[in-house]
Design brief:
Number of helices: 3
Structural class: mainly beta
Number of strands: 17
Largest sheet: 4 strands, antiparallel
Strand order of the largest sheet: 6-7-8-9
Distance between the termini: 68 Å
Strand content: 35-45%
Radius of gyration: 22 Å
Amino acid sequence: MKTSSPAVFRACLLILASLPVLVGCTVPSPNAAGPELAQLEVGDSKLHATDGTLMLHIKDIPGSIRVDADTEFGASAQFTDASLSPDGEWLAVATDGAAHSTGWLVRAGSRDPKPAAFQYGGGLAIGPWSESGRYAVFEAESPAPSHTLAVVDRQSLGETVSENSTAIRTPDHDEQVPAHTRYTAIGWQRGELLFEADGARYRFDPQRSTVIAE
């Protein structure tokens, strides 16, 4: 019987190795979250994992949100956005009410949302989590209009938005963010948030609460 040459044998191995790619299969990374944690299904009143597990109900959101020690607003009517931290331990949630939007951080599996963001007369969305999952980003659209960013540290949560949320501001915007200004989150790199504002690029260091121009 005639045996295959080494070249033919190597070619066969190469074809077999490429089969998962040819049929559209992928091999998950050992550190990747499972498919049920990869994304959330956001309904008006419920948040589900993709495997159907109920993560949070709108009834779990408090009836009001404390913006600071002296200011409180009625809370949310429906979910608008949600994101799971990279380690799968926390949820960042955005909700809409009659005239405002609210943001919350919630430990996965708990029913104890902490106030994280507030926008009166505008909307909120979830930005990128930091690589470790310690910091969440909330994106706010104001009626001005302007688009701004805030960072929340899940390891240091109090009972008001002002305690928990750090507004991202460039040195030129310490006093006020001009109308039509747009802060855009690019992503996290080595524990710092990369973002753009007015066509320039910056880094925000959450541990020092400092903004540095690139």
